[in-house]
Design a protein that fits this description.
With 205 residues, this protein is mainly alpha-helical. It has eleven helices and no strands. The protein is elongated, with a radius of gyration of 20 Å.
C-alpha cells in the first residue's frame, strides 16, 4: 500500500523571497549557503532538493526580483506620454526603489555579482544578460519614438540607450553608497537636462 509523501515543512514562496533579499543585500558571493538556509528556514539538503544549486536558487531569486521590483518600473516606458517623459519617469521610479528604506539599497541585478571567481562566471554572464535586457527596453522605446515621428529619422538610438543605461546603473551604485533620494534626483535632472543636445548630437553623428 502506497503512502502519501510528507508535505514540505516550509513555505517555498517565503523561502525564495528571503533568499532574494539576502542575495540583494550581500551579493551572490557574499550570501553563503549556511546563511541562505538560515533565512529561508530550511536546512541545506532541503534547499538543494527544492531549489537545486546555489546558482539555480540565485537565478530564481533574480526572476522573483524582476517580477516584484522591475515590472512596474518598466511599464513607465510605455504608459508615459512622450519618450523624454517616459525615460525620466523610468529613472525616477528606479531611484525611488533604490532608496526604499524597507529594502536593500540599489539594484540587485546591477550589484549582486559584478566580480567574483572563475567558477561564478555563469552567474555574472546571466546578470549581464539581464542588464542588457533593460538596455534593450530603452532602445525599443527610442525606436518607437522614431517610428512615431517624435524623434528624427537617423537618431542614433544606441548611444542614447547606452547613456541612460549608464545613468541608471550609476544611480544604483550611488544609492548603495548612501546617496539620498534628493541627491539621486539631482543626478537624474542633470541627465535629463542634456536631452536636447544628446538628441541633436546623436542625429548629427
Amino acid at each position: 500500500m502506497s503512502t502519501r509523501g510528507r508535505p514540505r515543512a516550509f513555505d517555498p514562496d517565503f523561502a525564495l523571497r528571503s533568499a532574494m533579499n539576502l542575495f540583494w543585500e550581500r551579493g551572490y558571493e557574499g550570501a553563503t549557503l549556511t546563511e541562505l538556509a538560515a533565512v529561508m528556514g530550511i536546512n541545506k539538503p532541503s534547499l538543494y532538493a527544492a531549489f537545486g544549486s546555489k546558482e539555480s536558487l540565485f537565478r530564481q531569486a533574480v526572476s522573483l526580483y524582476d517580477v516584484t521590483e522591475g515590472r512596474r518600473v518598466e511599464q513607465a516606458l510605455y504608459v508615459e506620454p512622450g519618450v523624454r517623459n517616459a525615460i525620466a519617469r523610468f529613472l525616477e521610479l528606479n531611484l525611488e526603489a533604490y532608496t526604499n528604506p524597507d529594502k536593500p539599497r540599489g539594484c540587485m541585478v546591477v550589484l549582486a555579482a559584478m566580480i567574483g571567481p572563475p567558477e561564478s562566471a555563469g552567474t555574472r554572464e546571466y546578470l549581464a544578460a539581464q542588464r542588457a535586457e533593460t538596455r534593450a527596453l530603452l532602445h525599443q522605446r527610442l525606436e518607437r519614438a522614431v517610428m512615431e515621428g517624435e524623434l528624427a529619422e537617423g537618431t542614433d538610438c544606441n548611444v542614447i540607450a547606452d547613456f541612460y543605461t549608464t545613468v541608471l546603473q550609476g544611480l544604483s551604485i550611488q544609492a548603495r553608497d548612501g546617496a539620498t533620494q534628493a541627491q539621486l534626483r539631482a543626478i537624474m535632472r542633470a541627465a535629463m537636462a542634456g536631452w536636447e543636445s544628446l538628441i541633436a548630437e546623436s542625429v548629427a553623428a
